[in-house]
Amino acid sequence: MFAADRKGRNFVSGLTSDEIAAILCTAVGHWGSGAEYLLQTVDQMERLGIRDANLWRLQRVVACKLMVLRDQRGERLDGGSALHQSLRER
């Protein structure tokens, strides 16, 4: 679990969903990619009975952006990947 200090110098606000999605598509840290962290977060929340429409909307935007990036690189998307599953199920 992560917590953000809204008054901290690293906290950024005022970004659009599209801007946030673009960042998540390329962000990678010690615990993996931003896109994967978002997917795991919304999945776990759903399992707990918490449905956050805004996070799922962001997840869809991220998934679509990742698919475009992969198409541009000429990569095939594995039909069993978590990304593919999230698009198909939602």
Description:
This protein starts with 16 loop residues before the first helix and ends with a helix. With about 90 residues, the chain is mainly alpha-helical. The protein contains four helices and two strands. It has one domain (about 15-90).
Summarize the structure in short.
The protein is mainly α. The protein is 59% helix and 4% strand.
Task: Summarize the helices and strands and which ones pair or pack.
Blueprint: H1 17-26, E1 28-29, E2 32-33, H2 34-47, H3 53-73, H4 82-89
Antiparallel strand pairs: 1-2
Helix pairs in contact: 1-3, 2-3, 3-4
Low-confidence stretches: none
- Major beta sheet, specifics? 2 strands, antiparallel
Compute the CA-based radius of gyration. 14 Å
Shape: globular
Helix tally?
Answer: 4
| Count of separate structural domains | 1
Q: What are the salient characteristics of this protein?
A:
90 residues; mainly alpha; two-stranded antiparallel ribbon; 4 helices; 59% helix; globular
